[in-house]
Amino acid sequence: MPDLVTHAAIGYLIRRPVEILRPSRDDASKRMLFFLGVILPDILSRPIYILLPGLHDWVVAFHTPAGLLAASGLLASRFEKPFRPTAFRFLVAGGLFHFLLDCFQKQVTGNNFWLFPFSYHDFGFSLFWAGDIVAFAPVWVGLAVLMEIGLRFGSRHRKAEICPPDKPSIS
Amino acid sequence: MKKIRIGTTPIWLLLIAGLSAYGAFRHPWISYRECVKDPGLCRGRVIESFREPMIGTISSDGFILLQRGETPVFVHADTTGLKSGEYTGLKAVLREDGSLEAVRLVVARGRREKMIISLIPAALIVLLFLIRFRFDFREWMFYRRNRA
pLDDT for B116-128, tens place per residue? Predict the structure, then answer.
């Protein structure tokens, strides 16, 4: 997997323009769920098998789309009822984006078991090693910050065009 | 007093438990631990699962493989470009003398850095999530803080 800085920053670069182009109610909550989804497959599996390597095979499922659906369903079931479908959708969207980024990475052993539990076929494209892109993490963060500044500046500019300040009255 | 509403939670928990158990008992790879326990089981098979494998002392014809919770084992391999203390991706075959013969070996460069820097966004996202959502311990439920 790429590191979580890369996952989160590229997720931000994808998610924020969508919010600007198609604003909806409670975008900030949806964004948080999307980001939680982006890191969910890794935070459910990596810490467990790094600290307790004997449990590796037990947590393989958490880094698969089936595991993501189940974990998102479990999390979403603990949200207020009207918000559950939204929570589920955004957690899953974030998680699927995670898998999309992961599949570009080279692995010695498989990691992209998209059809688990039906198959252990690895769907990786093997384009780069994880270690090769760690150095680019600050670039993605920098781009995300630049984009946020640009989006905020643009939105302020648009608001000013729609609602121009009152002209001073001539007395 | 508010009650904990169970809802669909047990179904998801059962599903997670089932998937987890399936992954544990029905996987195509063989682990080093399984091989050491029952060498007959893995005769000639390529071992793909090691416990956080790390390169120890390097010699001319191989290196000592360090794993968490396992005794160090010698791996016969081309040591060009290897560096002691680095994590590694490894596929290997168990020899009769108990050592390993590397089939594929890649140094996982930057793995330690990757783990360390990954803690920052993970902590930040969880923190921001908890700022955005309040957890009610009586109901075991998340609520949006900005909800009218």
Answer: 999 999 999 999 9
Chain A: residue whose CA lies nearest to B142: A79
d(CA A5, CA B53) in angstroms, rounded, equals: 24
Measured between alpha carbons, how far is A23 from A30 in angstroms, rounded to an integer? 11
Tokens of A104: 């570009």
- Is B144 touching A (CB cutoff 8 A)? yes
Domain-wise residue ranges, chain A: 4-162
Distances (CA, A) of B2 to B9, B136, B138, B140, B143: 18, 10, 7, 10, 14
Mean pLDDT of chain A: 89
Q: From the candidates B105, B140, B142, B145, which should be mutated to test the interface with A, based on the most A CB atoms within 10 A?
A: B142
Sign of CA dihedral A79, A85, A87, A88: positive
Spatial distance between the Cα atoms of A68 and B16, rounded to a whole number of angstroms: 9
What count of CB pairs under 8 Å joins A to B? 160
Query: Measuring CA to CA, how many Å separate A25 from each of A19, B145, B146?
Result: 10, 14, 12
